[in-house]
Structures are given as structure tokens and as C-alpha cells.
Design brief:
With 878 residues, the protein is of the alpha/beta class. It has 36 helices and 24 strands.
Length: 878
């Protein structure tokens, strides 16, 4: 019979390790996920390697434990848990529940005590036990049946502590680890020990005297007067420290070993959580199709596949669905159309429809109203076939998104399911996924498409009524619907890229990379493969003797985080960092952009995602043109390849100046902020003057830099931890900085308090144009979830209103260009910037028209300010 194996994980320790080992990551809802991601990776590794029959994750129940009665200052030196980590603990618990893994916490006890108690019970019951933690205190639990795995740097590098390993490493037994802690103390837990006694001295004493008690009874036999004096003076403190370091193995726990049986996890539950957290790579690792083909009760429907398309098929109001198999509709083939109206339910085969003048005439008739799913997608895909979709007056996807942008309703079936209407199979179930994906025969496809149009016919009035009730119908009708068509124009038209210039840049970048590689090898004293972490680790840490920051299974870590910490230790580090940055520019941007340039037109057609972000911001994919790195000169130069599509034209760029801070001033109604913007002052210098209590002349560049970080940080609900990371200062200093900022701008503090109160009352916050974001966690009993929700409540109206403003500016600019009968075209939106191409003769008009329209698209209590520039390339227009 196979021996039972219990794995016990110190949940708090592993979560902390994961948080600090990985850079801050966010999912599309703005929730930090780096600790959850790292914890998940660790969990997967444990399950795969340990193959436990039983498993439990123990958590600390609170700040106070029975040890505080012994020593009030126990763990007193620890900094408050960063809010960015605290908010992730509920998701770690959700993760464990999804995996079917038992978890436990016990009031007045630590995770160590739960692990200590359970490991002892399991040993008595004949189990093999594996403990996983980052806390070496737990090595005292090591025995012939219990191995303690201690995470070293990072989370996947584990050192196995058996009694043999402890003997080899320290010359001690596991029980003596407690005596060692009593002597040397533990700064991380604020256990005092004996001042002046470190690890080496403690080990030497224990080898001679065996236990702390024996030592203290035999102080006269200790060599060295100073050490004798210390041991005599701090005898009581040493015994107390040993008591604090001793793990309780008889804690009154209620969880039993049979409750920890691990039978594996349900893929559907894990996949649902991965999807919510945005863990795409982990979703792929699950392998098989994780979506259940839900048994849907379908009602009978009738539909027609006409032999010929005639006017008789269409009505004055039609539910029109365009089916595309691929997500990227720029390259996707249309599978067919469905039309539902009072005349019946129709499926229109693609070849028949595209060859029909009747269909084209109807599609382009503005008087024939069409309710569609995703106006922009439908318009762009039809335009590629020579048809301009007109008369679209309602978008099901857009309406659903505006009603709750935080919900992941990413296809028609999920929207129908949410509102309990016409049931549909999801696309993944209907078509299959990955290699199994295929288009069914025409009659089956026709029925699915007609069902989609019928679902739209039931959804339209429901969604419209809710938009009206929420006072969002104007936002839908006047902002998002017209914007969809403007974005469709921008996507379809694309932006011209000089392929030759990109190729030249690629060659120049390659030459630069060769030069840097030679310099790195020269500084290393030998040739080696810089792209090999193993070879690089040997050069840096063994040959050059740089301090080890982090180790992995295969050797020394050479991650970007490690290299940045080594910055200044050796000249080679700066060259390696530059080599990697330029290498990424070469592969991701130069080569990446070249792959998506259309050969005939030399244009790139990005896709703007209008229904994705919780704040209303647009994002860009395939390729992402909002994210071309511009900190490096080489990155900025990539914009030189973006040029006008016609000779004698220029690229014209217009950028809102500090729009989010201006929105904050308006929403908060802070008199000082408002006046600063009215007086056209440098807002970062003004904030530095307020916070540091200095005159304008006394503001240093560092003061302004810190003020800028807190100005923008406030907009994003930054915490003391976040600001400390940005500025490289302590959390205490960062907290004081934020406090001084809020004292200087009392209107901002009042706004923050008021918006949290409003969010708690209503359950949501709104932007200036009534865009909503629901924040159910704002009333959570869980402090961490509630804290994150409060930050979201503070920053969403600011970010969302800035998004509303630039969208309104795009609509107003489109109208202005048409009114003036200008040839200028809007090509891109990049955050707070609009990029146009224009004939040179129209530039003088644009210099006045663009700022006028953009600055007056909405009325605020502070002036909006737009800066513009232009030139022969996008690079020159900045």
C-alpha cells in the first residue's frame, strides 16, 4: 500500500515570497495579481512534484497571538502589509477552493503552530510529511518522516531540510534550531535573543553545551568575558526568545486529517478563476477544453435560407448578425449573416449575400435600421468586402458593456445568459477550440446564427430600458455609438509605415547589439552567450564576484530585477541591461511591426478595443500602437517609420496636457489646484512648493520629481508601498509625503472621503458623462478587498472622465473636419493624444482648429490645454 503523504504549506509566507519575487502585475480590472500568480506557480510545482494524498494551506489568523502575552513587542518591527498584497489574499483563498485544497487558520495562533500540530499528528498516523515555507523557524519540525522545504530567493528555488541536512549545515539537531533562535534572536519576528550573539557563536555554544538551558547553567565554563557578561545579563531574554521561537505542536485545531484528502481539481473551476484573474498562459497549460458543453434547452425555431436575396426579406428595423470565426476580424472570414424582423428569420449564405446588389443596397441604406452585435467589428469586416454598413442604431455588445464594464461578457451567449433570455451555445462550444475548431454544415450553422439574431431581438429593449434607467442612454447614443464608426474608419484606413526605414532601423539596431555584445565580452574577459542565463550567471557571480541576489534551480538568477539591483556594482551591468532593452525593441517592435505591414498598401491596421477596460479607456492590439516604448532614443526612433500616406502631407499630433490632474481638480473642486491650472502654473512645481513648504526658486529637480510621482499616484489611488517603489524611498517617507499632499489639497482629501461614501451607498461610481463602474467589494467585511475597492472608487471617476473627454474630442474633431471640408484624417488615439495626417496647406488651419475643438469639447472648472506639433513622421510630430 502506498504511503500517505501530507503537504503543509505556510500560506502567508509563500504569498509574501511571491509578492516580492515578482513585479506588480494587474489584470484588466486593475486588481494586482503578482502574489496570486506566484502562489499558483508554486502550488502547481508542489502538486506535480510531491503528488500529495493530503494537503492543507495554513494562514495566520490575525496580528495578535498567544506569544504577545509573553512578549508584547513580538513581530513589532514588521511593516504593515502592502495594500497591493493584502488585496490578493482573498483571491489566494479562492484559488485554493477552486483547486479543492483545504485551508485553515486559528484565532490566537500562527500558521507555524497549525503546521507543527498537524505534522506531529500525521507522523503518528504513519504519514510522510512535507512542509513548505520561507520561514526557517519551521526547520525545527524536521524529522525522519518530515522534510521542511524552505524557499530561498524567489519562490521555486527550495532548500530541503532533513535532520541530516541540518546536521551537515549547522552541526545541530532540528530541536537545537530553537535553542539557536533563543541565543541569536530573529529580527524579522522581533525576537531579541542575546545582543552580540550571531549564528556562528550560537552554533559554537550549542555544540559545546547542547541546549540553551545547559549553557545558561554553565556560563562560568564559557570562554570570553564579554560573552559571559552578555549571557548573564540577558539570561531571561534568551529563555523568553526560545519560548517565542518554539512552535506549538498541541494547538487546539479542529481540522482533521481526512478533511485534507486531495483528489485533484475540477478544471472548470480553476479555468473560471484563471480567466477572472487574466492568467492566459496558465489557462493554456490546463490543456484540454475546460469549457463544459452545457446542455441548453433549445426551443424550436423556424428559419429560411432563401434561394435569392430580395427586398422582401428586409424591413425598416432588422436584427442583423455578422458571424466571424476569428477574434481578429481584420483577417477573419465572414461565415454568414442572419436577419430577423417581423417578416421572419433568415440566414444569408456569405457568397450569395456578397454577390447581391440587393443586400449591398440594404446594408448601405441609412434609412433601414439595424440592431447589430459589435458595430465596429461588423463595419470593418464588411468594408473589407466593399460594403459600408449604415443605419446601425443599436449595438448589443456596447450596451451590455456600458451597463457593467467589469463583467466579462465577451460573447452574445454570455450576455443572453446574464439576462435570462434566448439560450445560446457559446462559440467555443459550438465551433470547438484550438485544433478541434471547425465550421459545421450549413443547416447547423444557419440555425446557430438565426438563434443569435433572435437573442438580439429579445435583448435590445431590455438593455435599452436599463440604459435609460441608469441615465446612460445619452452616453451610449451620443458618444460610444458614433465613436464606433470613427474607430472603424481609423482601423480600416490604417497608418502608413515605411517598411524600408524599419528594415534599416533593424540593421542599425543589430549592429549596435553586436557592438554592445563585444563590449560586454571585453568587460567579462571572455566570449560567452549573453542570452544564456546560466553562462551570464557564471560570468557575473563567479568570475566577476558580484553579490548573489537570487538563485534558481539552474544557478544564479539574471532577471531584470536582479540586474537593476546590481546596477552600480560593475560597468558590465548597464551594458547588459541596454543589450536586453535593445534586443526587445528589435524582436517585439521592429520585427513584430514588419510582420503586420500589409505588402500592397504598406499600412498597419491596429484594432481599438472599445468594450474592454473598466474605466472606458481605449486599448490597441494586433499590433499595440499605444505601447511603443519611447524612453530609449532607439524606441522613439521607431516612430520615424510612421509617415503620411500621401506626398506633401504631414503627421499632426495633439496631446492633452495633464488631463487627469485637471479632471481631479474639477471633480474635487480644490481651490488651490483649480487656481494653479487657471494661472497656467507648472503643477508639479506648485505641488512641490506646497508639500515641501518652499518657494518656487527653492524647488529642486528631485522635489519636482517626487511631487510629480505623488500627483499622478493620487490619480491612480497609489499606496505608500507603491509610491515608495516608484521613488526608491521608505514606505514611512512615502506615507508622510502622501499625508502632506492631502493636507496641502484639502479638496482632494474631501473628494476621496465623499466618493468612498457615495460608492458604499450606491454600489458604483460614475464619470462626468455617467459611465458607471460597479464596486461591490466596497462594503466587503474583508479589509483588503474593501481597501482595493476604495482606491478603485477614488481613481475611476478621474481616469474614466479623461477617457470620456478624449472620446468626445474625437467625435467633435470628426464633425469639425467634415464641416470645414478638410482632407485631414484621424489615424490613431494613443492615451491622451490624437494623431492625424494632413496636407501641408491645412496645417495652419489645424493649429487653431484642433486645440479649439479639443479644449472646448467639455466644460470644466479648469481650462483644458492641448499641445500640438507636426512633421514628416510621427517621431517629428512629438
Amino acid at each position: 500500500m502506498e504511503k500517505k503523504k501530507l503537504v503543509l504549506i505556510d500560506g502567508n509566507s509563500i504569498a509574501y515570497r511571491a509578492f516580492f519575487a515578482l513585479p506588480l502585475l494587474n489584470n484588466d480590472k486593475g486588481i494586482h495579481t503578482n502574489a496570486v500568480y506566484g502562489f499558483t506557480m508554486m502550488l502547481m510545482k508542489i502538486l506535480e512534484e510531491e503528488k500529495p494524498t493530503h494537503i492543507l494551506v495554513a494562514f495566520d489568523a490575525g496580528k495578535t497571538t498567544f506569544r504577545h502575552k509573553t512578549f508584547e513587542e513580538y513581530k513589532g518591527g514588521r511593516q504593515k502589509t502592502p495594500a497591493e498584497l493584502s488585496e490578493q489574499f482573498p483571491f489566494i483563498r479562492e484559488l485554493l477552493d477552486a483547486y479543492g485544497i483545504a485551508r485553515y487558520e486559528l484565532e490566537n495562533y500562527e500558521a507555524d503552530d497549525i503546521i507543527g500540530t498537524l505534522s506531529l499528528q500525521a507522523e503518528k498516523d504513519g504519514f510522510g510529511v512535507k512542509v513548505i515555507s520561507g520561514d526557517k523557524d519551521l526547520t525545527q519540525l524536521s524529522s525522519s518522516n518530515t522534510t521542511v522545504g524552505i524557499t530561498r530567493k524567489g519562490i521555486t528555488d527550495i532548500e530541503e531540510y532533513t535532520p541530516e541536512h541540518i546536521q551537515e549545515k549547522y552541526g545541530l539537531t532540528p530541536e537545537q534550531i530553537i535553542d539557536m533562535k533563543g541565543l541569536m534572536g530573529d529580527t524579522s519576528d522581533n525576537i531579541p535573543g542575546v545582543p552580540g550573539v550571531g549564528e556562528k557563536t550560537a552554533i559554537k555554544l550549542l555544540k559545546e553545551f547542547s541546549t540553551l538551558e545547559n549553557l545558561l547553567e554553565s556560563i562560568d565554563q564559557v570562554s570570553g568575558n564579554k560573552l559571559k557578561e552578555k549571557l548573564e545579563e540577558f539570561k531571561g531574554q534568551a529563555l523568553m526568545s526560545k519560548k517565542l521561537a518554539t512552535i506549538e505542536r498541541q494547538a487546539p485545531i479542529e481540522v482533521k486529517l481526512p478533511e485534507m484528502v486531495y483528489d485533484g481539481f475540477t478544471k472548470e473551476k480553476v479555468a473560471a478563476l484563471y480567466k477572472e484573474l487574466g492568467f492566459s498562459s496558465l489557462l493554456d497549460k490546463l490543456g484540454e477544453d475546460v469549457h463544459e458543453a452545457a446542455q441548453v434547452e433549445f426551443r424550436e425555431i423556424e428559419f429560411v435560407i432563401p434561394d435569392h436575396i430580395t427586398d422582401e426579406i428586409f424591413s425598416n428595423e432588422n436584427y442583423f448578425y455578422v458571424e466571424l470565426l476569428e477574434d481578429n476580424y481584420h483577417i477573419a472570414e465572414i461565415l454568414g449573416f442572419s436577419v430577423v424582423n417581423e417578416k421572419g428569420n433568415f440566414f444569408l449564405p456569405i457568397e450569395q449575400a456578397l454577390q447581391s446588389e440587393v443586400f449591398k443596397s440594404w446594408a448601405e441604406d441609412n434609412g433601414k435600421k439595424k440592431i447589430v452585435y459589435d458595430v465596429k467589428r461588423s463595419e470593418v469586416s464588411l468594408r473589407k468586402r466593399g460594403i459600408h454598413l449604415k443605419g446601425a442604431n443599436f449595438d448589443i455588445l456596447m450596451a451590455s458593456y456600458l451597463l457593467n464594464p467589469s463583467e466579462a461578457l465577451d460573447d452574445l451567449s454570455s450576455i443572453a445568459k446574464k439576462y435570462g433570455l434566448h439560450p445560446l451555445q457559446s462559440d467555443e462550444v459550438f465551433y470547438g477550440k484550438g485544433a478541434k475548431r471547425k465550421v459545421p454544415e450549413i443547416s447547423v450553422l444557419a440555425e446557430q446564427l438565426v438563434r443569435k439574431a433572435l437573442a438580439m431581438s429579445e435583448l435590445k429593449e431590455v438593455l435599452k430600458d436599463l440604459l435609460i434607467k441608469n441615465e446612460q442612454y445619452e452616453l451610449f447614443k451620443e458618444l460610444e455609438m458614433p465613436l464606433s464608426l470613427i474607430l472603424a474608419d481609423m482601423e480600416s484606413y490604417g497608418i502608413k509605415v515605411e517598411r524600408g526605414r524599419l528594415e534599416t532601423m533593424g540593421r542599425e539596431l543589430n549592429e549596435r547589439l553586436i557592438e554592445i555584445e563585444e563590449k560586454i565580452c571585453e568587460l567579462a574577459g571572455e566570449k560567452f552567450n549573453i542570452n544564456s542565463p546560466k553562462q551570464l550567471g557564471i560570468i557575473l557571480f563567479e568570475k566577476l564576484g558580484l553579490p548573489t541576489i537570487k538563485k534558481t534551480k539552474t544557478g544564479h538568477s539574471t532577471s531584470a530585477e536582479v540586474l537593476e539591483k546590481l546596477s552600480g556594482h560593475h560597468e558590465i551591468i548597464e551594458y547588459i541591461l541596454l543589450y536586453r532593452q535593445l534586443g526587445k525593441l528589435q524582436s517585439t517592435y521592429i520585427e513584430g511591426l514588419l510582420k503586420v505591414v500589409e505588402p500592397k498598401t504598406e499600412k498597419i491596421h491596429t484594432r481599438f478595443q472599445q468594450t474592454l477596460t473598466a474605466t472606458g479607456r481605449l486599448s490597441s492590439i494586433d499590433p499595440n500602437l499605444q505601447n511603443i516604448p519611447i524612453r530609449l532614443e532607439e524606441g522613439r526612433k521607431i516612430r520615424q517609420a510612421f509617415v503620411p500616406s500621401e506626398p506633401g502631407w504631414v503627421i499632426f499630433s495633439a496631446d492633452y496636457s495633464q488631463i487627469e490632474l485637471r479632471v481631479l481638480a474639477h471633480i474635487a473642486g480644490d481651490a488651490k489646484l483649480i487656481q494653479a491650472f487657471k494661472d497656467d502654473l507648472d503643477i508639479h512645481t506648485k505641488t512641490a512648493m506646497e508639500v515641501f513648504h518652499v518657494s518656487q526658486e527653492e524647488v529642486t529637480s528631485n522635489m519636482r520629481r517626487q511631487a510629480k510621482a505623488v500627483n499622478f499616484g493620487i490619480v491612480y489611488g497609489i499606496s505608500d508601498y507603491g509610491l515608495s517603489q516608484n521613488l526608491g524611498i521608505s514606505r514611512k517617507e512615502a506615507g508622510q509625503f502622501i499625508d502632506r499632499y492631502l493636507s496641502s489639497y484639502p479638496g482632494v482629501k474631501e473628494y476621496m472621503d465623499d466618493i468612498i461614501h457615495t460608492a458604499k451607498q450606491k454600489g458604483y461610481v460614475t464619470t462626468l458623462l455617467q459611465r458607471r463602474r460597479y464596486i461591490p467589494e466596497i462594503t466587503s467585511r474583508n479589509f483588503n478587498l474593501r481597501s482595493f475597492a476604495e482606491r478603485t472608487a477614488m481613481n475611476t471617476p478621474i481616469q474614466g472622465s479623461a477617457a470620456d473627454i478624449i472620446k468626445k474630442a474625437m467625435i467633435d474633431m470628426d464633425e469639425a473636419l467634415k464641416d470645414k471640408e478638410l482632407k485631414t484624417r484621424l489615424l490613431l488615439q494613443v492615451h491622451d493624444e490624437l494623431i492625424f495626417e494632413a496636407p501641408e496647406e491645412e496645417v495652419e488651419v489645424l493649429k487653431t482648429l484642433v486645440p479649439l475643438v479639443m479644449e472646448n469639447c467639455i466644460e470644466l472648472s479648469v481650462p483644458l490645454k492641448v499641445d500640438y506639433s507636426y512633421g514628416p513622421t510621427w517621431f517629428d510630430a512629438k
